[in-house]
Amino acid sequence: MHTQHLRRRSPYFRQLVILCLAGAAAFAVLTLAVAGSESVTHLDTTVSEACHRHGMESPGTVRFFQVVTWFGTFKALTALSVLAIVAIAHVGRKRLALAWLLTLVGSGLAIEALKDVFERPRPVWDEPFAVETSFSYPSGHASGSTVGYGMLAYCVGLRWKSWRRRIGLVVGLAAWVLLIGFSRIYLGVHYLSDVLAGYALGLAWLALCIVVIEEVRVRL
Known about the structure:
Blueprint: H1 2-8, H2 13-36, H3 38-57, H4 59-70, H5 74-90, H6 94-118, H7 140-159, H8 163-186, H9 192-219
């Protein structure tokens, strides 16, 4: 029975466990660096100021990233989740639909809790491109997009047999998530380390949830 379970388990199970641990370790390292490294703070400030200067001279680019950043908002990820959950449930995968919901809700709660723990102020500008009222670290857009679009890649990949299509899907959505994260830096509402920490946390949570989903799938 145990051998049969191993045969049915995802071939990427071990890589997912490693990815989860790597993401958690990266988040821990970044957190320590933000708290105690002047070089990280200097890099954050330098990158933010460079993006802001470019934005002041390129209003069209600012408008572009204002559109891009919307796809990482709570509204956008909620809409994506509702559509995905309905579609997944419609094809008879109700457990997977529930797993999507729990994964996204868990991610959101974790981000809000961590923001309140670290209480890092956001960048301040005389002429801001966007305004946010919550704390800065870690980036909810980066983490939420990693989890939301990562789950989309996972669920669609389950139905696609071609590894070329799967790789194309993952690469495409990963590029989109990176663009959303960069939009937060460009618009001046997050530091580079905020976004990197959001990615690390989102990746760790996504990998952990997929590991659990795979374990449940095998046992059922």
